[in-house]
Amino acid sequence: MLSQIRESELQAIRSFHSSQLIRNKYENILENLDSGIILFDSDGVLAFVNVQMAKLLGVSRKSLTGCTLTQLVRHPQLSRFKKRKVLRIFRETVFHRKRFHELVDEYGRSWLITMTYGDQMEGDFLISVKDVSDFKRIEQSAYQNDKLAMLGKISASIAHEIRNPLTSIRGFIQLLRPHLVSLGKDEYARIILTEIDRANDIIYEFLNSSKPSAPETKIVSVSSLLKEVVLLTESEALMKGCQINLHTDETPPAYISVDVKQIKQVILNIIKNALDAINEHHDENITGMIDISARDNGKHIKICISDNGGGMDQNTLNHLFNPFFTTKESGTGLGLSVSYSIIRNHGGSIAVDSQVGAGTEFVITFPKLEVSEV
Ligand SMILES: Nc1ncnc2c1ncn2[C@@H]1O[C@H](COP(=O)(O)OP(=O)(O)OP(=O)(O)O)[C@@H](O)[C@H]1O
Ligand SMILES: [Mg+2]
């Protein structure tokens, strides 16, 4: 009898220990999860906070134990920026009962805030915060690719519509040419024909670049490529009273494998935009400057093009690479969207940093070639 009681006691102790072990395991997992987790009980007192959430708040976990929401917002270690964000999260999730809420932090990262409450939580409120920046980036790039595909279709139909009448005009001018010659106006026929050919060339170039075609790559030195592009823009810059500074003292010289024509077009687009931005932001006391440089960080080659023009506001930055987005009266809004697809086709990336009134910097990143490939 006694031994039976002993056995059942031992059984109870064993099951208590094993449930304690499981509990510790779960707590350990929750504590070290890469998402931030915070739990408030039905009285609004903080019951649990994991390592990641304390890190995100920038507050020590110890000092958070037993805090109420008001105490959390007034916490001396919480920065003003974070206080505002915490209040916003609570307004959206607790008061407006939104189960999901998204926010962008001071470093531009996107976070998804999820709120769980209800019967299964026995009056508690669980808030979890997850970094979704990578998902956002993928989503944005899929959206961008869709738009570029649409752009390809639109440009093909535009080209079809414009090219046909141009071909007819060209044919009729050739028929009229003998009459113009007899009137001593052969020069007119020549000019019309040259201009039609030029228009055809422009359409051809436009179509070629707006359709994301596979690049015909060649290994080139970054500095010679940049020198050639600068040569092409120097006269326009001079006319606009703007200075272009090229910094290409790379030792050893850097090489990239690119479609030279396409990459020249990208750099030209960016320099032309910089010249426009400087022109629009005309200030007699400041010389317009465009600085172009190439950097080798071991794995990548970065080409930086910065200007001291008017810069861009957040709305412009959000739509910068969208086809047909322009703030210029005579702009098509295709320059940067085409540049974006060219750089992506080269396995590179393009980033921008800009401040209203201060200027803009574009950074194009290319994969670096191994010495054996050069
Ligand atoms: N360096 C810059 N400084 C300020 N704004 C810029 C700069 N580069 C681009 N932008 C902004 O981005 C917009 C889109 O540029 P994008 O080159 O795609 O088209 P666009 O220059 O307007 O027209 P186009 O098709 O003739 O190039 C511009 O209208 C301008 O508002
Ligand atoms: Mg442009």
From TrEMBL:
SMART domains: HATPase_c, HisKA, PAS. The keyword Kinase applies. PROSITE patterns: HIS_KIN (PS50109), PAS (PS50112). The keyword ATP-binding applies. GO terms for biological process: regulation of DNA-templated transcription. Residues 22-77 form the PAS domain. One of its GO terms (molecular function) is ATP binding. It catalyses: ATP + protein L-histidine = ADP + protein N-phospho-L-histidine. It comes from the Bacteria. Keywords: ATP-binding, Kinase, Nucleotide-binding, Phosphoprotein, Transferase, Two-component regulatory system. It is an enzyme of class 2 (transferase). InterPro entries: HATPase_C_sf, HATPase_dom, His_kinase_dom, HisK_dim/P_dom, HisK_dim/P_sf, PAS, PAS-like_dom_sf, PAS_fold. Its EC number is 2.7.13.3. It holds the Pfam family HATPase_c. Residues 157-370 form the Histidine kinase domain. PANTHER family: C4-DICARBOXYLATE TRANSPORT SENSOR PROTEIN DCTB, SENSOR HISTIDINE KINASE. NCBIfam families: sensory_box (TIGR00229). This is histidine kinase. It comes from Paenibacillus glucanolyticus. The lineage of its organism: Bacteria, Bacillati, Bacillota, Bacilli, Bacillales.
